[in-house]
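Why does residue order matter? Because the sequence determines the fold. Keep that principle in mind as you read this record.
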Amino acid sequence: MPTSEQRVIVVGAGVVGLTCAIRLLEAGHRVDVVARDLPLETTSAIAAALWYPYRALPQDRVTAWSKAAYGAFEELAADERSGVRMLTGTEVLRDHQPDPWWRGAVPSLDRETSLPPGYADGWTFVAPVIDMPVHLRWLVARVEALGGTLTRMNLSSLPDDGTLVVNATGLGGRHFGADPSVHPVRGQVVVLEQVGLDRWTLDGSGLTYVVPRAAEIVVGGTDVEGEWSRTPDPAVAEEVLHRATALVPELEGARVLRHKVGLRPARPEVRIERVGEVIHCYGHGGAGVTLSWGCADDVVGLAGD
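Structure:
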């Protein structure tokens, strides 16, 4: 069993690294988080962060991690400081389809009959929606309240002094995990003023989504394999806005607050495994937030091995 004597260094301060740190601290470990990018500088800060298993495999493990995280977010939603809200929304589909493969991760999912023109099917369910800048600050405060630390540090390699290390470096897994299968999938979003929207909407076929936060609305998105540029493209922004407004007409005329680009850390499968004194936890694709607490629980299990 873990004791307070075991020190763990978590490398990476996005949502995955911070949730791993919290679960490890709760289990009695001493935890220091080190990262080149502080939480609000990470891809996690840009995510629309609608709970939804996207670009992550294998399906069985992703469903289990997603279900565990759903439960954790449901509890956090009771504390408005966490930035988590449980909101009803609908995924619309161009064709009739069977239930999604991750159906077992949500408590209830209903077929939607009131659909926009051009859509043949859809399902409505309650999902966690996470305001990431708020949530990341909350996670940091939780790490510190539990006695953990967060330090900006640009490492050239993982620590190898015998300390247990969690490699939660996202795209950095290419370097820190010597893993060329990790690659970026570029996602561009537009953040709009809040116009009274309290439901999310998703069209997975064109990767169009409208995700309301308390004070703003995140619309997206794009899915560009192998693209490293983080510079927003004005033409892409215009096209994203056009798709989003066609899906949710209430957005017409909403003021644009900012443009953001994030690079999802994609991999053929999420990597969670222990190799010696390193626990690898990266490759979450477009589902880092969705899988976060579930993967963190597995990391705690590996830390006790």
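The CA atoms of residues 192 and 257 lie 5 Å apart.
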